Amino acid sequence: MVGGGFGGLYAARALASRPVRVTLLDRRNHHLFQPLLYQVATAALNASDIAAPLRSVLRRARNVTVLLAEVVRVDLAARRLALDRGEIGYDALILAAGAGHSYFGHEDWEVFAPGLKSLEDALEIRRRVLSAYESAEREPDGAEQRALLTFVVVGGGPTGVELAGALAEISRQTIARDFRVIDPTKARIILLEGGDRVLASFPEALSRRAQDALQRIGVEVRTRANVTRVTADAVWLGGEQVRARTVLWAAGVAAAPLTRTLGVTLDRSGRVPVEPDLSIPGHPEAFAIGDMSVCRDRTGAPLPGLAPVAMQQGSRAADNALRRLSGQPTRPFRYRDRGTMATIGRAAAVAVVGGVQLSGLVAWLAWLFVHIMFLIGFRNRFLVLFEWAWAYLSWQRGARLITRPWRSRD
Ligand SMILES: Cc1cc2nc3c(=O)[nH]c(=O)nc-3n(C[C@H](O)[C@H](O)[C@H](O)COP(=O)(O)OP(=O)(O)OC[C@H]3O[C@@H](n4cnc5c(N)ncnc54)[C@H](O)[C@@H]3O)c2cc1C
Fold first, then answer.
1. Residue 157 near ligand 1, beta carbon < 6 Å
2. What is the position in ligand 1's atom list of the atom closest to the CA of 292?
3. In terms of DSSP H, where are the helices of 218-345?
4. Is the CB of residue 160 below 6 angstroms from any atom belonging to ligand 1?
């Protein structure tokens, strides 16, 4: 099994105590609860609050071995995986290596506009944001100071909306009175979305409410804004230059590069189109799940890249792998959609649950409940809830506002 994210972990749990020997390979030694990454990036939570060691999560699964290893190549024909050191064979394979950022062919932008996918990303974003305020406080040049106090988020999906909302609240509330030269409340937070509306995967009415809520807390939302260039101190929209020292990328997703070693046809995002039972076409013993794969529902629409999709697929792939090994027919995967939600800031969110559209505080409470309940293997689940609620309600982010010395991006 490759990957201890949502898909891999649920597959491993489904195989615990079953009559098979399972090896779970991950290049990191922890499971990461990505939906709370932006709270780490914006100093509301500590890194350790949202990461759990895979070994301890799977301690009781005696038939599961966890190995810290990077899989560099998959040989589907020979049923072998090449690792950073050595190789390993398999009878059945579950690939759940997730996805990373896509800069749509402009990988050189990454250094100026980091995305949010790992703990390292979150800590780097936190460092850049806090360092920008510190540098602005010492900057004598007015134009440069404005660039330091301009934060651009590219991409108006859930991650971009959440990041922009949290950045606005940091400037308007958390550190509003902490500086003497600059006025943090005057910082510009700009959210750029290439399409017609933010949160395009939500119903239009909720997109509008999300946009209104963002504007109320001071985010400048610009739709149909296509980024054509990113440099160390600016974002370009065609001929228009927006000077900004901090640019964050929340615009594109690409499947884990591992998919390119499979030798099967991939979609435009590098994802593996899978059979209804989640197996890789032509390889019934190998399954691909979660963000690295694309699975269609009964209407032919691709399932979204969400944690519940990966979790449910993990359980189905595990069951199908067992069925395959014991000579039984596999079963098709059916997604049970229990809703989608996105937060906009303190006590505001939008959600669609069971076909019902929610917004404002009710949606935020629903968001809070769901995300805390699904924190995997965290014994301190309620402590995390308390920490985070306290950071929100008191506007205090305490020690997490400490940053390392400024490092130039140039
Ligand atoms: C900032 C952010 C916020 C999000 N918010 C939400 C939300 O609110 N609700 C929601 O439902 N979803 C949310 N998502 C999406 C959700 O996190 C993903 O859909 C989910 O993590 C996909 O699970 P996965 O198992 O496919 O991949 P992942 O959880 O990404 O796990 C992939 C694992 O594979 C490992 N790996 C990758 N390549 C290799 C390799 N070559 N060798 C070994 N190991 C490898 C990685 O280390 C990782 O542990 C969010 C995502 C992000 C980035």
1. no
2. 26
3. 307-325
4. no
Measured distance between the N- and C-terminal CA atoms of the chain, rounded to whole angstroms: 40
Cα distances (Å, whole numbers) of residue 16 to 64, 93, 312: 7, 15, 16
Tokens for 388? Answer: 């985070």
pTM for the model stands at 0.91
pLDDT digits (tens, 9 = 90+) for 170-204: 898 888 889 999 999 999 999 999 999 999 999 99
- Whose CA is closest to 107, among 115, 99, 116? 115
Question: Among 32-41, 145-154, 204-213, which stretch is predicted with the lowest mean pLDDT?
Answer: 32-41
Measured distance CA(17)–CA(3) in Å, rounded? 19
Centre of ligand 1 from the C-alpha of residue 122, in Å: 14
Facing residues of 376 across strands?
A: none
**Angle at alpha carbon of residue 324, lines to 319 and 325, rounded to 5°:** 100
What's the CA-to-centroid distance between 358 and ligand 1, angstroms?
26
Residues in the chain: 410
Q: Would you state the structure tokens that stand for residue 137, as one six-digit string?
A: 């406080």
For ligand 1, atom 33: residue with the closest CA: 3
Annotation says 162 is catalytic:
yes
Question: What separation in Å is there between the alpha carbon of 8 and the centre of ligand 1?
Answer: 10
The protein residue whose alpha carbon is closest to atom 5 in ligand 1 is: 35
* Ligand 1 atom closest to the CA of 341, numbered from 1: 8
Select which of 139, 162, 169, 193 is catalytic. Answer: 162
What band does 338 get if pLDDT is binned at 50, 70 and 90?
A: confident
Sign of CA dihedral 309, 106, 262, 70: negative
- Cβ-contact 218, 180 below 8 angstroms: no
Reported as a single tens digit per residue, the pLDDT across 278-307 is 999 999 999 999 999 999 998 999 999 999
Per-residue pLDDT tens over the stretch 224-242: 999 999 999 999 999 999 9
